[in-house]
Every structure is written in C-alpha cells, then in structure tokens.
Amino acid sequence: MPRPIEALIHSQALAHNLARARRAVADARVWAVVKANAYGHGIERVFEGLRSADGFALLDFDEAQRLRQLGWRGPILLLEGCFEARDLELCSRLNLWHVVHTGEQIEWLSRHKTHTPHRVFLKMNSGMNRLGFTPAAFRSAWARLDGLPQVDEISLMTHFSDADGPRGVSHQVAAFEAATHDLPGERSLSNSAATLGHPGLRSDWVRAGILSYGSAPDAPARSASDWDLRPAMTLRTRLIATQTLQAGDTVGYGSQFTAEHAMRIGIAACGYADGYPRHCATGTPVLVDGQRTRTVGRVSMDMLAVDLTHAPQAGVGSEVTLWGQGPQGSSLPIDEVAQAAGTIAYELMCALAMRVPVRVVDPL
Fold first, then answer.
1. I need a labelling partner for 15 at 20 to 30 A (CA). Which of 108, 216, 246, 343 fits?
2. Rounded (5°) CA angle 189-351-250
3. pTM for this structure?
4. Is 35 assigned a catalytic role?
C-alpha cells in the first residue's frame, strides 16, 4: 500500500468561504485570489469550489492559461501586471486584466499594438511601500493611461499593510481618497483582512485571498471559526509505530524531548519533506483519532512523534490530523499549527510537498 499521508481539498468549504466574503460586502464583486497555485491547494482542485467568484486574481501567465483551459471565460486579473513589454501580447490573447504599478508598464502599453484596448487596474502605493504610484504621482499616471488608445477602462486599487492589526486602514484610505476622489473608475481596496474586519469600506471589487482557504486573516487575534470560515485543506496521515518510554528516555534527533515519566508515543508518517515545518517544537497541536494531543521531539524528514497520553487506545493505523478536518467532526485550525511554528498559515499551505498525494472531496 502507499505511504498513508494525504492532503484533502474540501470543495464545499471553498464555496462556503467565498459566500462568507460576499455576505461581508454584499454590494461588491469578489476576486478569488489563486496566486501561488491557489495558495498550495492547486488551481485545478479549487476551481469548482471557487467558480462562483466574479473573477480570479493571480500572478503569472501559466496560472491564467490553466484557468482558461478549465473553461473560465470571466475576468482574470494579473496582480503584479506585466513583467516585460511582450507580456502584453499574452494579455491580449488571453483577455487578461492587469495591474499597472510603475511607469515602465505605461511605456510598454504606449507601444503595444492591439485591436482591443486593455482593462487595467492602476495601483496606488498608499503606505505599503511595495508596488504602486505614490499619491503625489498617481493622478499623473492616470492621465497618461487615460490618453492611450491601448487602454479601455481604468480601475483604481491599493493594498493595505495593517488591515489585520491595531493600526488599521484609515491612514491609507485617507491617502487613497484624497488622490482619487474625483477620478472615474471602479475601486478595489479590500484584501481578506479588510473584507472581514472593515466591511464598511467602499470597494467595487474585494480580493478574497487567505479567507477563501479557511484561515483567519488576523490570526491569532481571532480564529477561523470566529469569522465562520471552514478549512479548505486537511493534511492527514496514520501512525506507523508506537513506542513506550520510561522516565529519562529521549525522542528523536538531538534528544530534544525527555520523558518525565512512563508514557506512550506514536510515530506518524509525516515530516519536513512533506511540508510540515521542521521547527515545530514539542507541544505543537495535533489530532490522533480526533483527540487533541501534541508533538514531541524534533520533526524528522519523514516522521514525527506524538504524545499518546490522551489517546490511550491509539495504535498502528490510527488517523493523525496535522491540520484541517479530523474524524468525528473534530478540527485542527491550520492557524494554530502555524503559530506553533512561528509562521502564518499561508506558508504551511504553500509548502505542501509534491510527494504528498492530494485529492478533492466534498464535491459541490
């Protein structure tokens, strides 16, 4: 039989999370963000669950081509725009909308030969200081685009740096509105954190990224269940061995865990070569047969150890849920595992290794 580890993609959870975004901003259209191969879930695997979106937003042309091959004929937005002038030919061929965030992209458009003008999203750097025109330069960039026959409608967008934290979004909203108040065009301001945490913002398009996959955008302050989000990915495996320790026995490389008393541990078929973080220390939450317990010792390439104190009936073949939906209605939020690893759920999702089999469940 194959090694027992697998990842499950839950179509119904994806659809539920997208509907949750719509409830938060009933008057806005929703981009389902599927960059990074749908945050590690796989574009082809999430498509059915997210196809009720008004559009898909992503980064590269390969992902856009895959969506078109799946039969998507609606809007696709390139969130970083074109990377060189000849990319505009692909935008024309695939009917892609694209972000314009730098003067070079405007120059490429001015030289582009096309029969169909492009729909563009002009991006403002309102304080994130990654991509976009400063508020002082924004109107000039808009005027340049507006004068090009290669450009059709110009939408306006920005990206928030602190929508999930105490600083909030007011300083960036003020900068955006001051520079755009009398400019025509649809607006796209809200990412996942702003969509849920600041639903009163005016935004014609919201960008549902991490929320689509069932992670809280403001974790650990709030949980996915606080926002009524459901995990879209489950990583699970089984125990392949058990060991009985005596006081003083150690576990794993570097003897990072020492038993204080007699105890049983289980060895699960999952390690850092599967995408589980090596730096998850003893105490990282895990489910065994739906019962919450913890990891012990250092994560190995192909295995990790779990404490069976609170799962006395567990043995070889018992189900181990690393994150996501467990048996008997149990659940382990990926955000909790990410917090234990000192990172965020995005990284865990995107790090799922190619050797892990993945299948779609809960069809719509």
1. 343
2. 130
3. 0.95
4. yes
User: Which structure tokens are listed for 63?
Assistant: 């992902």
Topology annotation, domain 233-361: Lyase, Ornithine Decarboxylase; Chain A, domain 1 (2.40.37)
Can you state the percent helix, strand and coil of the chain, rounding each to 5?
A: 30, 25, 45
Q: Could you tell me where in the chain the CATH 3.20.20.10 domains are found?
A: 11-216
- Calculate Rg over the CA atoms of the chain: 23
- Cα 126 from Cα 113, distance rounded (Å): 32
Strand locations in 202-261, DSSP E?
205-208, 233-245, 250-251, 257-258
Buried b (16+ CB within 10 A) or exposed e, 123-143: bbbbbeeebbbebeebeebbe
**213 is annotated as an active-site residue:** no
CATH fold label, 11-216: TIM Barrel (3.20.20)
- Each as own residue / partner, the long-range contacts of residues 97-105 (CB below 8 Å, 24 or more positions apart, any chain) are 97/55, 97/121, 99/123, 99/131, 99/157, 100/141, 100/145, 101/125, 101/131, 101/132, 101/133, 102/131, 102/133, 103/141, 105/81
SS3 149: coil
CA 175 to chain centroid: 27
Catalytic residue among 35, 123, 213, 276: 35
The secondary structure element, H or E, covering residue 98 is strand 97-100
Count of CB atoms situated within 10 Å of the CB of 260? 9
Q: Which residues contact 210 (CB under 8 A, 6 or more apart)?
A: 39, 192, 217, 345, 346
Q: Where in the chain is the domain with CATH 2.40.37.10?
A: 233-361
Catalytic residue among 113, 123, 253, 276: 253
Tens-digit pLDDT profile for residues 159-193: 999 999 999 999 999 999 999 999 999 999 999 99
pLDDT digits (tens, 9 = 90+) for 61-116: 999 999 999 999 999 999 999 999 999 999 999 999 999 999 999 999 999 998 89
Tokens of 218: 């403001």
Residues in the chain: 364
DSSP conformational letter for 31: E
Alpha carbon of 191 to those of 23, 31, 146, 170, 262: distances in Å? 15, 10, 26, 14, 49
